[in-house]
Amino acid sequence: MTAFDRRDLGLLLLRLGAGGVLAAHGTQKLLGWFGGGGLEGTGQFMESVGYAPGRASATAAGLAEAGGGTLLALGLATPAAGAAAAGAMAGASAVHAPNGFFNAGGGYEYAATLGLTAAGLAVTGPGRISLDHALGHTVNRGWMVPVALAATGLVTAAVVGARGLRLREKEDGGDDAQTALFDEEEALFGK
């Protein structure tokens, strides 16, 4: 079948909506567009919420959102694009998690929704109204989906975990990382 169907149109709408929002958020971080802080302001914010170094964290988040969002909207390299955007949203969700679920209270609802949409598009694929389809799916192979999601999951877990450790150290009055690791090991293994 060569004609586009409802699924293709639905995927296009999802890609354009989620990809456009992600790209806009990324340009806020990278370029200061749409009222964003740019790398300087976003870097300071990232540092204040435990992502260090702040400027590098702002750059990584901005590239994942702007790049991943743009690629999702175009339907190009969909597994990598969706995974990158989902990873950035997992990092944002970690910041908002202490405020509960709902966005109205500062919770992680919005970031989680964008992240799950991006991950869903990575898994489902872009549909036939996409650059991936036009290019013969050269950068949208089935094996790329688990590789992209696993790689992003590992990196995101490491970054969010390091943030959590920094925040715990700050709460504990600056105990060194080694002491915190020994305390966690003792709690886990009863040594």
Order of helices and strands: HHHHHHHH
Largest sheet: none
**What would you report as the Rg, rounded to the nearest angstrom?**
19 Å
Number of helices: 8
Question: What is the 3D form?
Answer: elongated
Short description:
The protein has helices at 6-31, 38-48, 54-74, 78-96, 109-124, 131-134, 144-171, 177-189.
Q: What attributes characterize this protein structure?
A:
single chain; mainly alpha; 72% helix; 0% strand
How is this structure best described in words?
- The chain is mainly α.
- Helix content is 72%, strand content 0%.
- The chain has 8 helices and no strands.
- It is elongated and about 65 Å long.
- The termini are far apart.
Q: Which helices and strands appear, and what pairs or packs with what?
A:
Blueprint: H1 6-31, H2 38-48, H3 54-74, H4 78-96, H5 109-124, H6 131-134, H7 144-171, H8 177-189
